[in-house]
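Lab notebook: predicted structure, single chain.

Context: the supervisor wants predicted structures on file for every construct in the current expression panel, including those that have not yet been purified. This is the next one on the list. No modifications to the sequence; it matches the entry in the shared construct table.
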Amino acid sequence: MVRRVHHIDFVVRDLDAATARYSQILGVAPRAREKLDSRGVELVRFEVGDLWIILVRPVRPDSPVQAFLDRYGEGFFHIAYQVDDVAAEAARLAGEGVRLVNATPRRGVEGWKLIDLEIDDTFGVTTQLAEEDAG
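Prediction complete. Output recorded below exactly as produced.
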């Protein structure tokens, strides 16, 4: 069961400019820059209430985020819903016919466990399930 919207990602070409603008818009300072080498990205997170707004910039040409940016341009990348047990929720959805991009959770920042849903099964919205590391 979904608990809340966990984070929303936006793909940008210029992380410095986007960070400055989103700081103005949101009225909060971002966390430090982070790299997710496994995804080939650099990112900045803003904590807004109990939601993360994340700006993502690809840093490798083979990054799936670079492929997304090349195809769709800057803007909305995905929404992630927080669940208590990402593996159990993914299994439930798969049992109900929802296709998964990755059946095994991958790791995000701060140890987040992430499962991606097939975009064709979410009516064109890139969607993730997210579980925060309790440790």
